[in-house]
Amino acid sequence: MTADTKCKDHIDHKDVLDFEATYSVKIGLTILYSLILVAGIIGNSLTIKVVCILQNKGYLLKSVTDHMISLSCSDLLVLILGMPVELYSVIWDPFSSSGNIHCKVYNFLFEACSYATILHVATLSFERYIAICHPFKYKSFSGSRTVKLMCFVWLTSFCTALPLLFAMGAEDPMEPFKRYSHTFPSCNRGASNKTICTNLTSKYTVFQLSVYSAFIMYILILASVTFMCKMMSKTMIRMSSGTVSSKANQGKHEILPKHESAEKKSARKQTIVFLVLIVITLAVCWMPLQIRRIMAASKPKDKWTKSYFRAYIILMPISDTFFYLSSVINPLLYNLSSKQFRSVFMQVLRCKVSLEHVNMRTLRKHTDSSQSSTARSTRQLLHASRKYTRPPKRLTSLTKRDTDSDQCQKVSPTEPDSELTQLNPVSMNCSWKIDSDLTLQHIAIEPNRLQPNANGLSETAI
């Protein structure tokens, strides 16, 4: 390849100006980013408020609440740290670098908060997977373990982002092409006297390591969450069909609850639906950003052609917009997957929360059910009177011991009813016995069907 051909194919000073968007694109992106930022801050802030209300009212476990609050906080940090800085330093004035340290710290924090989001999805999925598929193991998950999971998420996120502290910095965009000025003197690839926040040419290997490791973690988390959602769905189907065992590790079996309340089943289904939706969201919204990052890591800048560079520049605002949308969509997914969350969310928006505690609601339902069943009942329950001289013929559970000589003594009508309701042969001084398999305490009699017999005992047809 000749020097002229090589110079023609690669980036020059004119191409560097493509880093700065046109004025119309700047206005459009500013409006779009502002809407995303406001919607994300309001949505995630309200999500934290709603989750706290649901947890205080007994509708959410504390472990799930901790996961959801931490996830919302990471989304808020992504929006607050990323969007204002990018709006100014990438869209409006890309060549006004505020310094090497600022560039390093910004990329490090932004990367850490970004991967804290996806790791929170993984830990929430894992926690729900254990609760549904291995309920007895889930009992060992205490509050301290949930806190440890949260610490693990943030520690892993910071470790994943740590290489960017060394790989990113302020650099002249023509720095990678300086060697062409020595190899091919006819190529004008000198310094452009401009600096941008980018991956450093001297730390290209570190940048590659960071991008590829983050991408592998992204793929593994999506695959793991998909697998756990599939297993949770299968377990829910088995439980609905009456299967009470689930194969666990080392050939053992765990007994699963065969009968659950409709509310608990509905809550678990809503959790699975939410996790499926968030996996789809992460796959769609994060993929353009991953493609752009791989483009930057797979080919050194000094080998970028003009077409490759323009494709990267076009993809940049698209990938960033989709990425920030993923931090806004989570509150919408909560509303779509949970009717209870949607109801409280609207109450918080109206500043009028009327949700009652789950215990009060359960008590009220039982009270209403008891009152309605009592109102439907038209029969009156009367205790049997003991004004008789001998046991009735129609009480088949009593057997006569001596039919010739023994007679029951009359019982005084002034004795208390609590004593009369138990037919005790000893207190009645009778030679009758009660079968051992029967405990007769009360006899229900319908008043309109009482027919006195010849012996003075009112009988009823049961």
From TrEMBL:
<protein>
    <submittedName>
        <fullName>G protein-coupled receptor 39</fullName>
    </submittedName>
</protein>
<feature type="compositionally biased region" description="Basic residues">
    <location>
        <begin position="384"/>
        <end position="393"/>
    </location>
</feature>
<keyword id="KW-0472">Membrane</keyword>
<dbReference type="InterPro" id="IPR000276">
    <property type="entry name" value="GPCR_Rhodpsn"/>
</dbReference>
<dbReference type="InterPro" id="IPR052676">
    <property type="entry name" value="Zinc-sensing_GPCR"/>
</dbReference>
<feature type="transmembrane region" description="Helical">
    <location>
        <begin position="31"/>
        <end position="52"/>
    </location>
</feature>
<feature type="transmembrane region" description="Helical">
    <location>
        <begin position="209"/>
        <end position="229"/>
    </location>
</feature>
<keyword id="KW-0297">G-protein coupled receptor</keyword>
<feature type="transmembrane region" description="Helical">
    <location>
        <begin position="272"/>
        <end position="291"/>
    </location>
</feature>
<dbReference type="GO" id="GO:0016020">
    <property type="term" value="C:membrane"/>
</dbReference>
<dbReference type="Pfam" id="PF00001">
    <property type="entry name" value="7tm_1"/>
</dbReference>
<keyword id="KW-0807">Transducer</keyword>
<feature type="transmembrane region" description="Helical">
    <location>
        <begin position="147"/>
        <end position="170"/>
    </location>
</feature>
<feature type="domain" description="G-protein coupled receptors family 1 profile">
    <location>
        <begin position="43"/>
        <end position="334"/>
    </location>
</feature>
<keyword id="KW-0675">Receptor</keyword>
<dbReference type="InterPro" id="IPR017452">
    <property type="entry name" value="GPCR_Rhodpsn_7TM"/>
</dbReference>
<comment type="similarity">
    <text>Belongs to the G-protein coupled receptor 1 family.</text>
</comment>
<keyword id="KW-0812">Transmembrane</keyword>
<feature type="transmembrane region" description="Helical">
    <location>
        <begin position="64"/>
        <end position="85"/>
    </location>
</feature>
<feature type="transmembrane region" description="Helical">
    <location>
        <begin position="105"/>
        <end position="126"/>
    </location>
</feature>
<keyword id="KW-1133">Transmembrane helix</keyword>
<feature type="transmembrane region" description="Helical">
    <location>
        <begin position="311"/>
        <end position="333"/>
    </location>
</feature>
<feature type="compositionally biased region" description="Low complexity">
    <location>
        <begin position="369"/>
        <end position="380"/>
    </location>
</feature>
<feature type="region of interest" description="Disordered">
    <location>
        <begin position="364"/>
        <end position="422"/>
    </location>
</feature>
<dbReference type="GO" id="GO:0004930">
    <property type="term" value="F:G protein-coupled receptor activity"/>
</dbReference>
